[in-house]
Structures are given as C-alpha cells and as structure tokens.
Amino acid sequence: PWGLGEMMLTGGCGALRLMGESSFCFQIRREDFTTFEYIFGMDDENMQDLEAEAPKNSTAKLLLLGEFDPEGERIIRDPYYDRGSEGFEKCYQQCVRAIKAFLEKHG
Length: 107
Known about the structure:
This protein is mainly alpha-helical.
C-alpha cells in the first residue's frame, strides 16, 4: 500500500497545525468494512479501490466525501503534487465543509 508507515507530508502537517488539528492516518483494513458504519473516499479512484477491497460481508456504507460539500466540490483533489501548503489547506477546508454537512444530515 502506497505510503503506509511513512511520515505524513510536510505540507499536510503544516496545514493541520495551522488549523489547530493533530495529524494521523492509517491504511483501511479488511475489518474496517464491518467495524465502521461509513467509509469515505476522496475521489473516484479511491471509491473504486474501496469497492474492490470491500469483502462480501461488508456493512459499511462507502461514500464520496465531496458529495456532501455544500460548495459542490465533489472531488477532493490530492494535493501531493502541489507546491507549498495551499493545496493541503484547500483539501482541509473541503473536508471540513463536507464533514460538517454530513454530520448535519446524519448526525
């Protein structure tokens, strides 16, 4: 799996620090599909990967996080290839908007 066990990118850590958030991540595991009610992908490729990895007994709802963005930005673009922290900050803001909207609807 891509990036597993590696340090988080500097731009991502910096954007999270500016927002007062801590940084952590983990690779989706097989048991997550029966442990969690929802699993979110950030783009169409993430969704395809999640759907391919989901076991037959999966109970998790697989959702595209950006579908909940009130500003209509459906795809949360990976800022990996951006220069500086702007892409990470935009990604963070998109996620915050979408998560808030999701929680308002489902929380």
